[in-house]
Amino acid sequence: MHEHLGRTEIARRAHLTPQAVANIVEELLEEGLLIELGRLRSGRGQPPIQFAVNPNGPLTAGIEVAADHMVTVLLDLSGGIRGQSIVSLAGPGPDVVPDLAASEVRKLQDALGADSSKLLGLGVVMPGPFEIEGMSSVGPATLPGWTGVDPAPLFATATGQHVVVENDATAAVVGERLYGAGRQLGSFCYLYFGVGLGLGVIQDGRPMRGAFGNAGEIGHVGLTPRKGKGVYGPAGALERFVSVFALRERLAMAGIYVATVEDIQRLHDENDQTLRDWIAMAADYLAPTVAMLENIFDPETVIFGGGLPDSVLDAVIAALDPLPVSVATRLQRSLPRVLRGQTGQLTAALGAAALPLLDTVSPHLSVADPAS
């Protein structure tokens, strides 16, 4: 991102006429999206006036709704995190969550002294798949109570904001692209450990969404692990074995109950045997998963992130070795085949907060009606 530019340089980079840029800059200044920094002293003639994104201008809000918690963030236009919160959910239904989301956004705004008029919009991310008949998650990843319910109007009514809704893994890969290990990458895959297991894909710098917003529902795919026998049908779905839900279920069978990331971290610090066994099993399923993703998408790397402690993700990645041969098996690599993400529990909410801005400024191409 360029910190400051003059009108002429903006016109050159955007391939617009100087007059068009002047009109756009003037409008953005009036709306508080840009600020004027003064003149740049360089060369002969009148120094150009420099402009930059206004870090104290309008904000965007991001909400991640999971089965047992909700993450809220506020971002300024320069990408700075201006507020964040994580609250537990007694119930994730549509009768509770929109009002709670509105309350959390107001609390974060109040802490900044910012009123609601400074919000450009609200991004909301939820587990998919969206509106697929006959398909449900093997764990509690698909939120109960939301079947047949359009979340956008409910959140818009509760918050009074323009709302953009996305699935959690796609938002997470946007968050990692903007703030984490994917900042310098144009093409990568992101395995998102939410309550279930999701996949986000960045291809040529843009997220892959699919025709109906359901690209990346990898949790429903069944793969044969490196050790043991494959299980077919819903009982063999990846997130039945490799997800936060699967880990909690395995721990509960051993009489160990965890509610937070900190609880899982404590078990790892204590070298808990049940957790160690799950890490080994998860790696047996994830190693062929990584090779499959590499063969399909040819990414620069595959990133693991989401709702597990960094230390556990590192242990899972270490247990992948040796990975199966794939198109990514090359001696000369600038990156390892698998990396850990850098944005932790905030990943999906950060991506969510970027959605209203992307929705506002990105061009949208429509398919022409063949009858017209």
Automatic annotation (TrEMBL):
<dbReference type="InterPro" id="IPR000600">
    <property type="entry name" value="ROK"/>
</dbReference>
<protein>
    <submittedName>
        <fullName>ROK family protein</fullName>
    </submittedName>
</protein>
<dbReference type="InterPro" id="IPR036390">
    <property type="entry name" value="WH_DNA-bd_sf"/>
</dbReference>
<dbReference type="Pfam" id="PF00480">
    <property type="entry name" value="ROK"/>
</dbReference>
<dbReference type="InterPro" id="IPR043129">
    <property type="entry name" value="ATPase_NBD"/>
</dbReference>
<dbReference type="InterPro" id="IPR036388">
    <property type="entry name" value="WH-like_DNA-bd_sf"/>
</dbReference>
